[in-house]
Amino acid sequence: QVDVAAMARLFGYVDVTDTGFIVAVLSIAFNPLFWNVVARWEHKTRALSQVFGSPHAACYCLGAVILVLNCVRSHCFTEAMKSQPKVEGWDSHWTYYSGLAISAVGTLFVISSFLALGFTGTFLGDYFGILMEEKVTSFPFSVLDNPMYWGSTAIYLGWSLMHASPAGLLLTAVVAISYTIAVLYEGPFTEEIYRRKQKGVKSK
User: Fold this and answer.
1) Domain ranges, residue 175
2) For this UniProt entry, which segments traverse the membrane (predicted)?
3) What pLDDT score does 11 carry?
């Protein structure tokens, strides 16, 4: 059972009305909303491919924008943690190295996902018509679904523990929720793209 009193004490450290905290929440929520809206618009209209001259150029451009937005999100996340109090009992070597280990695992998932998918596979290439030959099932996809998202979440979790930051933990929960919602929208849509591809191949 969840210790409600302990949770209340923990999040008593967090000022959710702080401007930096609000900006961090908005940046976390904005990123997956942005790339899903833009990618679906591209899939429907091919407007970006026309502007940039090819689907690959358009995908690389969107990927670059997503990377910049993720850097902004991480900066906002860190600044929000720095502006709020730490839990003194967590400010120890044990917590720091636990957080470091969690971040390392998250980084492993993110990097290995990128290597398995490539740039266009990572940054929504299938919405641009750049489809992979088959579903990737090698590590880390053999361990869990959506390892890029959950690896990123683990990095934020570890970062929060390293800073003994309740605000960071709450923001990590926002990251996890935003990715969960993104998966609910992206998963069926991507599966439909590849279902149509297979149907087209079989009809030839």
Assistant:
1) 4-199
2) 12-35, 55-73, 94-119, 167-187
3) 65
Positions in the chain whose pLDDT score sits under 70: 1-11, 197, 199-204
| pTM for this predicted structure | 0.89
- 204 assigned to some structural domain: no
Candidates 7, 22, 50, 2; CA nearest to 174 is 22
Give me the pLDDT at residue 12, please: 74
Tokens of 190: 């991507």
Question: Which pLDDT does position 6 carry in this prediction?
Answer: 59
